[in-house]
Amino acid sequence: MKISGVKQDLGRLGAALGTKLRNLFPHGATADIWERVEARLSRDGPFRASDRIRIGPAEHPLSVSRMAVGTGTGGWLGSSNQTKKLGVDGLADLLVAAFEEHGINCWDSADQYGSHPHVAKALKRVDRSKVVVLTKTCATTAAGMREELDRFRRELDTDYIDILLLHCMTSGRWPAEMEPVKAVIAEAQAAGIVRVKGVSCHSLAALKAAVNDPWVDLDLARINPDGQQMDAAPNEIVPLLDRMKANGKTVMGMKLFGGGALADERREACLRFALGLDCVDCFTIGFESRAEMEETIALLEAIRGQE
pLDDT band at residue 8, thresholds of 50, 70 and 90? Predict the structure, then answer.
């Protein structure tokens, strides 16, 4: 069969499955986005949670697993579902199991989750150089950011932070408003204290502002096929993430299951959506048990494109 014929067949299969999947999310991703998802899965899949993705600036890149393990489900004000349900030892066990048994080397934490002690305990059980620690700051001043850089490293018991993000930006003017904090983080990056810097966005205006801000190495963006707990509908967000990628930034997805709203029989479709978007480099998912993590990894690694 000619190559053009193969492409046409894949296109028809992708369109058919895209329509079926869209029916699961009638107010979410449009058929053309699902067709794009299926085309990539057929072309580039299958994928593994442990696939290594090169992220960050060329002068000091990181190699991270396609999936990160999150520690902040329902997290704010110093605690999360993971810290409350699993405790320090239980969450440390989960992180180490993800790394040692599944090759997942990216651990997603934040000051607001209260999960630094849990990550620190897990770090004592692995080779630090092989793990990527992500954390987030709510500092609003240069002095506050300097204090947090020191405190975070004490709490994590590490000399450096692999990925540091401004947490939960909502203002469309955040690049200017946060300039003093950004300058301190940039200085820390130049000194090797921070390796990759970026932002987590929690509004459409904030996400649009991140697209063209040259300070941003990595954007943590909410993405799922239904638009649950996202900054806008998928058909509005995906083009912004395309532009983010075109500008040389890393895109890490979050809220793949809509903060739990889609964590039912639609989980496989949500994973399929994230894997099939070439504008999403990697993603983070929070688990509240080892069984939940292993089931999700199995679902992810069973996903195939249409043959």
Answer: very low
CA dist 114 and 125 (Å) reads 20
Backbone dihedral region of 61: left (phi > 0), alpha (psi from -120 to 50 degrees) or beta? Answer: beta
Position 259: which residue type? G
* pLDDT at 170 > cutoff 90: yes
The pTM of the full predicted model, rounded to 2 decimals, is 0.92
Which residues, 6+ apart, have CB-to-CB distance to 212 below 8 Å?
A: 243, 247
SS3 of 164-184: the string is EEEEEECCCCHHHHCHHHHHH
Q: How many CB atoms lie within 10 A of CB 87?
A: 13
Distances from the Cα of 15 to the Cα of 105, 134, 190, 300, angstroms: 35, 37, 47, 21
- Residue 132 has a CB neighbour count (10 Å cut-off) of 22
Q: Where are the alpha helices (DSSP H) in the chain?
A: 3-24, 31-44, 81-102, 116-123, 142-156, 174-177, 179-190, 204-211, 234-246, 267-276, 290-302
% of the chain exceeding 90 in pLDDT: 86
Question: What 3 state SS string does 149-166 have?
Answer: HHHHHHHHCCCCEEEEEE
What does the mean pLDDT of the chain come to? Answer: 93
Instruction: Give the pair of three-digit tokens for residue 256.
Output: 């793949």
Contact 166, 174 (CB under 8 A): yes
CATH number of 47-302, picked from 3.30.1490.270, 1.10.1790.10, 3.30.300.20, 3.20.20.100: 3.20.20.100
